[in-house]
Amino acid sequence: MTSVSADEILERHGEALRLFTDRVHAVRDDQWSAATPCTEWTVRDLVAHLTAEQLWVPSLVTEGRTVAEVGDAFDGDVLGDDPVAAWDRAAAGAREAFGAPGALDRTVNLSYGDTPADAYCAQMVTDAVVHAWDLSRAIGADERLPALLVGFARREVGPYAKDLSGSGLFAPPVGTPADSDPQTELLALLGRRS
Length: 194
Fold this sequence. Notes:
Largest sheet: 2 strands, antiparallel
CATH architecture: Up-down Bundle
CATH superfamily: dinb family like domain
Structural class: mainly alpha
Strand content: under 5%
Low-confidence stretches: none
CATH class: Mainly Alpha
Distance between the termini: 25 Å
Order of helices and strands: HHHHEEHHHH
Helix content: 55-70%
Shape: globular
């Protein structure tokens, strides 16, 4: 991650959560089983993924637990009968954990090792931004992403984007025309065609 202040990370984090929240609240009852650009996920799967990601934050950041200690606590159906309310609760918990005094100065234990909490938060911003686009496309919502979030996510993911496809979680980067806008370039880095 490039040198970014804690205040800016928290500001972008709040914006990214609000963006994804807006899209979750726009999902119609008949769209939860719709396909998404994430080829193996439905809309419900996508929202469940982001919800589970948020549920991890208080355990890792506030409680200082390790991935091994949390274990499979957030596996399975994290959405229940009210996916929107489940997302709202999880997002509020993550926001509170990252926003606590000194939280971004901590070290958290992630699946790939100990990581500065500010870097973890920046990764979560990128995840929410890109998946907001996925969700927008899936439900027919406005696919334009806020410029500040696009710029932040591009700076965050740029240095390691080519390695992400090796994880099996992302498609390989796709080529873009030289005159592509920043959003198109960000999505292409993560294997998406806008």
